[in-house]
Amino acid sequence: MQLHIKTLLGILAFLFFQPLNLLAQDLDSDQLFELARKTAFDQKDYPKAVQLSKQALARSPEYTDIQVFLGRLYTWMDKVDSARLVFQQLEQKQVQDADFHLAYASMEYWEDQEAKALAIVSRGLEYSPKSIDLRLLKAKILNSQGQYTIAQDIVKTILEEQPTNSEARDLWNRLKNQSGDREIGLSYNFLYFDKQFADNWHILGLSYKQGTKLGSLIFKTNFANKFASNGLQFEVEAYPRLSKIFYMYLGAGYSDNVGIFPNYRTGASLYANLPASFEAEVGFRQLKFTDHVWIYTASVGKYYKNFWFNARTYLTPGDSQISHSYAATVRYYTQGADDYIGFVIGTGISPEENRENLWSDNPNKLKTFKTGLDYNFSLKNNNFFNISTTYYHVEYRPQTKDNQVDFTVGYKRRF
C-alpha cells in the first residue's frame, strides 16, 4: 500500500511539473531569462529560477546578464562557492559590465571579504566610472574599513548628482559621525514665555567635534541665563561604531548651577541601520536636579528620495503614571548633504531641548503641544548655518496655559 501511494504521488508530481518543462522547452533564452526573474522575484522560488537560468544559458552560453543573474541567485541562496565560481568565470573572460562587478563585489562585501570586494568594485569603476551603484558600494566598503573621509567624499558627489538617492543620504548621515573631520560650533537660543516665567531665557553654546576611528567625540560648553540667574554646563558626547549595522550614542553633562541646568545628565542609545534606508533607536536619558528623572526613548527613521521621516517617543515613569512625549519630524533636503528644511510636530517635552528644566516640575502633569521649522544650509562646503523656531502651547498649571516661542541660530565650521 505504501508503495502505491509513493507511485501515485510521483505520477501527480510528474503531471504537475511536466507542462512547465514542456513550456520551457519552447521558449528562447530571453523568454527563459524573463521567466526566471519572475520566478525569483514574484514567487521567491530560487531553485526553480536557477533551473530556468541554466536552460537559458544552454541556449545562449555567452549571455552575460543571465550568468550574472545566476550568480546573484546562488548568493541569495547562500551558496557562496557556486556564486563565486560563476563570477570567477566571468572575471576570466574580462567582462566589462557594471552589473557583473556590482554583483560580484556585493557578494564578497556581504561575506566580509572587504579587500577583495574593494578590488572588484575598483575594476568595475575603470569601465563604468559614472556608475552610482558601484560608487555607492565602494563608499560602503571604505566605511567598513574605517576610511571615512574618502567614503564621505564619494557619497557627497553622489548626492550632488542624485539628491533623491535615499541609500546615499542614509550612508552620509552615518558617515558624519564617523569621519575624521574637526568641527567648531557656536549657537544662541532665545526662549520667550508669555506667562509661565517673568524672564525670558538665553543660552549660548560652544562646541568642538573631533572625528576618530571609533567614532566622533563632541565637547560642549553652555552658558545660560534662566530665571534672571546665570549658569554654566559642560557636556561630552560620543558616537562609537560597533559594526556595519550598529552604532551608539553616549552622552554626559555636569553643572554646579542646579536649577539653571541639571546637576548631572547622562544618556545612551543603540542605533541599528536597517534595510531599505530605515534606522531604529532605543535608549534612555537621565536628568538629576534634586531627584533623578529617568526617560526612555525609542525612534524609527526612514530616508525616501529627498525626504527623511522620523517618529520618536519619550516615556517617563512617575509615581502613579507615565508621561508620554511624541514627535514627528520631516526633513526635505534641498540640494547637498547638509542643506534641508525641517518640520516638527509633537506633544510633551523632550530632554534634548533647552527647556529641560521643566522636567523638574513633575512632567507627568505637563500638557504641551509643539510645532516648529528648521532651516539648515551650507556655504563653500565647510560653513554650516542653522535657523530654527518652535512654538509651544503649554498647560503648566491646571486650566492655565502659556504660549512660548523658542528661537535658535547656529554656525559650524568644518576643517
**Main sheet characteristics:** 14 strands, antiparallel, barrel
Report the mean per-residue pLDDT as an integer: 88
**H and E string:** HHHHHHHHHHEEEEEEEEEEEEEE
CATH class of the largest domain: Mainly Beta
Helix proportion: 25-40%
- Write down the Rg: 28 Å
Which CATH architecture of the largest domain?
Answer: Beta Barrel
Q: Treating each run of at least 4 consecutive H or I residues as one helix, how many helices?
A: 10
- Widest sheet: strand ordering: 1-2-3-4-5-6-7-8-9-10-11-12-13-14
Pfam families: TPR_19 (PF14559), YaiO (PF19413)
InterPro entries: Beta-barrel_YaiO, TPR-like_helical_dom_sf
Organism: Sphingobacterium kyonggiense
Protein name: YaiO beta-barrel domain-containing protein
Structural overview:
Residues 182-353 form the YaiO beta-barrel domain. This is YaiO beta-barrel domain-containing protein. The protein has 415 residues and is α+β, with helices and mostly antiparallel strands. It is 34% helix and 40% strand. It has helices at 2-25, 29-41, 46-59, 64-76, 80-92, 98-110, 114-127, 132-144, 148-161, 166-175, and strands spanning 182-193, 201-211, 215-226, 229-240, 246-254, 264-274, 278-288, 292-304, 307-317, 322-333, 340-347, 367-379, 383-397, 400-414. A 14-stranded antiparallel beta barrel has the order 1-2-3-4-5-6-7-8-9-10-11-12-13-14. Helix 7 (114-127) runs antiparallel to helix 8, helix 8 (132-144) packs antiparallel against helix 9 and helix 8 runs parallel beside helix 10 (166-175). The longest helix is centred in the N-terminal third of the chain and has 24 residues, at 2-25.
